[in-house]
Write a structure and sequence with these properties.
By secondary structure, the protein is α/β, with parallel strands linked by helices. It has 15 helices and 13 strands.
Length: 460
């Protein structure tokens, strides 16, 4: 059995110590006292809360009766600086990044967090240097996050799993009751909402003494709604970003802008890549906002009316390809939706057969017009027509005609079936010697794909 640790400052000295001096020496003594109590905590857990409570009263009350009188006669002023007690509302992987960031800035590590509020009342300069070799407590900046709890739907989610694994208290919203009658469980300074899925009612918003904020992955007012990431790609935006906004009591994504940051959109960016980039950027923007929250509140700006666009929830039918669109529009749809609802087309292999839906698994980025495509354009004149380009004995590309050129597809999947190559698609679902009618949007022309090679020989 390990011996109990000895206090570097005698216990009777801690309990008799009343008001910490505001001088450098007084602060150093105070931090040594905290360090002693921290060490003492591991083997005296049962008595620790009693000791710290007694110590807090003694150390930070020059006159207990006077403080009690103040508590009775003065109202508690609005908190203006960290640490913030935060209630986090989130569900998915995007919101998880912000929760992890908040957790990492919760610097109390479970060690008598009640002293954090006491430290806040000392009015010590945050950058005050301790000229000593004893690194007992970092007071260069106060903890950003005090108490941190989570609200999430009852269904399994990344946020709920993280809260469980890290012993973070979480509160569930049930489908039966919803959130309209839900009451905030306790007192919190700030509510943080990130990809939560519910609209917070006014009584919930008003429960937070300092404010409520939302992390939205777009440059508001552009792309208000549930799917800003997808619409950033669908609309071929050249810039993307994150907006930290106040919650609006009546509308989604309509609150004042506290802080925003923008980035260029790289070419050929997919949904998952944009999601990863802005989830991390959103977490960083949230921390930046919380560090100077009251300043950002005072300078918050209403969203302008100009440039307002909507980004509604993505539905399955939005994944259907219209071959009358341009190559870049089809490519944008693939990058935005293929990883979520999927991008698909329909094919009618025989006149007597119904249309069959095929998901497109792999699509090639649009290319400059090649000699092969120029030859194909002379034969295939209608959108939806196709030809097959053989690469190897077992692989190739099906080029489908769009409004302004050809779109290359290498991998397909029939609903409920395994993924297969374009060669299997051609030989299994399209007549090898010609092209069959395809769909209402763009019939495949009834022509032999070998005509391209034959025409080339005739020219010679």
């Amino acid at each position: 059995m390990k011996p109990s640790p000895q206090l570097s400052v005698p216990l009777h000295s801690l309990l008799s110590f009343r008001s910490p001096s505001r001088t450098k020496a007084g602060i150093i003594h105070f931090h040594r006292s905290i360090h002693s109590l921290r060490s003492y905590q591991s083997t005296t857990t049962n008595n620790f809360s009693v000791i710290t409570s007694f110590y807090q009263q003694r150390c930070f009350s020059t006159n207990t009766t006077h403080n009690e009188h103040n508590a009775q006669t003065n109202t508690q002023p609005k908190k203006t600086r960290p640490p913030w007690n935060i209630l986090f509302f989130g569900t998915d992987q995007f919101s998880l990044n912000s929760l992890i960031a908040l957790r990492s800035y919760q610097k109390t590590s479970g060690i008598f967090p009640e002293l954090i509020n006491v430290l806040e009342g000392m009015n010590i300069d945050d950058t005050f240097p301790l000229n000593t070799s004893d690194k007992l407590w970092n007071i260069e900046s106060p903890p950003l996050v005090g108490n941190l709890e989570v609200v999430c739907p009852e269904a399994p989610s990344p946020v709920k799993s993280y809260a469980t694994e890290n012993n973070i208290t979480y509160h569930e919203i049930t489908k039966e009751k919803g959130i309209n009658e839900w009451v905030v469980p306790g007192k919190f300074d700030i509510g943080v909402v990130v990809s939560f899925g519910y609209f917070l009612p006014v009584h919930v918003i008003n429960s937070f003494s300092v404010g409520t904020v939302n992390v939205h992955p777009s440059l508001l007012p552009r792309h208000r709604g549930a799917s800003p990431l997808q619409f950033t790609i669908l609309r071929d935006d050249k810039e993307c970003g994150v907006s930290i906004i106040e919650l609006h009591p009546a509308s989604f994504d309509a609150g004042k802008i506290l802080y925003s940051t923008k980035y260029p959109v790289p070419p050929n960016l997919t949904y998952s890549q944009l999601h990863s980039k802005l989830a991390k950027s959103g977490a960083h923007a949230l921390i930046t906002t919380l560090q100077n929250f009251t300043d950002f509140q005072e300078k918050a700006l209403p969203q302008p009316r100009d440039g307002l666009t909507k980004a509604p929830k993505i539905k399955l039918e939005m994944g259907k390809i219209d071959w009358n669109a341009t190559k870049s529009e089809i490519w944008a749809k693939f990058r935005a939706l293929s990883e979520l609802v999927g991008v698909y087309t329909t094919v009618k292999p025989r006149p007597s057969m119904p249309h069959i839906r095929f998901k497109i698994i792999e699509m090639l980025a649009p290319e400059k017009t090649s000699e092969l495509h120029e030859q194909a354009n002379q034969i295939i004149t209608k959108v939806g027509g196709f030809f097959y380009e053989k690469l190897t004995k077992s692989s190739g590309i099906i080029w489908i005609k769009a409004k302004d050129g050809f779109v290359g597809v290498t991998t397909f999947q029939r609903e409920g079936k395994a993924v297969f190559s374009s060669l299997y698609f051609k030989t299994g679902y399209l007549i090898p010697t010609g092209l069959e009618d395809y769909s209402e949007e763009g019939p495949f022309e009834k022509r032999n794909s070998n005509n391209i090679a034959k025409k080339k020989k005739k020219k010679k």
